[in-house]
Amino acid sequence: MGIARVVFVALVFSLAWAGGAGETLFRATPPCDFPAIYNFGDSNSDTGGISAVFGPIPPPYGESFFRRPAGRASDGRLLIDFIAEHLGLPYLSSYLDSIGSNYRHGANFATGGSTIRRQNESIFENGLSPFSLDIQTAHFNQFKERTSELYHQDKNPFDVNKLPRPREFSRALYTFDIGQNDLTAGFRKLSAVQLEAAILDIVNQFAMAITHLYQLGARAFWIHNTGPIGCLPAAAFYIQNPKPGFLDKYGCIRDQNNMAVEFNRQLKTRVEKLRQELPRAALIYVDIYTAKYHLIRNAKYYGFMDPWKICCGHHEKNISVWCGQRTIINDTEIFGGSCGSPTTYISWDGVHYTQAANHWIANTILNGSFSDPPKPIDHACLKHKM
Q: Which family, according to UniProt (predicted)?
């Protein structure tokens, strides 16, 4: 057996052992029994916010599970959906979606294109959202205050049944998946030196949001770092004849991944500091980067095809038609349709993951294998011992 194979097997074994050990360690401890989830993030966890504000995501999004577009940038469920399933809670309604929403067990403040800090560039031209993290936490504050007012008025029992109980806000799980768009915006308008210098401010603004929620009563935080941005197929659409060293041995853009790693390093350090600043908080840092990169490196081992293949959209010979879009080229209509078998793909549309990949990631991280401290999500309310 080659050295690479030995290392790979050892890694898989160690991850499986860590997950099993973590679950065994906490088996004797009652789970947290979270009554609700409040999520903050970007398109990786948006369940309908950006669709409610700017118009619905078109077919074939949602085809694998919801059988229709469901406000999610995937063919089906996102990681936040699998988190809700794992905790026995319903899927989260978007705070920005007023039609048919039920907030009894939480709300989703994430919107596609969101960043941690506000952007000075044109948000619409560059695919960014006006709902940066500080706006999302302001929405939560408004949601919490309005919920309390309506609940205590108790004029309409039907409406009250769609609202969380005020006493349950402090017992809920607060999840975060945001930061990717801050880096991608930086890649467009900043030099590498400037972007690296900006990371400290981005991370500090992330910490300010968590501190604000803590002051509002939040106690259990599940915080994802950012993924391997340089491994997104869309990152390589227009790259031709890259210089030696530009790509790593798996085809990912090395500099972009290095910047994501630096962001994650600083984020983890800041979370460690927050544990001292917020003494009653339980803060779990989740290494999504390593989980996703492991899947991309070993796609075939886990039953997926080439991770650079995209299920939805048409991208070839300098022609790009994004998923669900149509265009006319040389009097011929080209549709960015679905591959028809997304279960074998990691990338859905070049930027977002398929439901199958999201499911794999959920199964990999929720047992605590990639968490610091290594706690399964259903024990994330337990405070870290300093």
A: Belongs to the 'GDSL' lipolytic enzyme family.
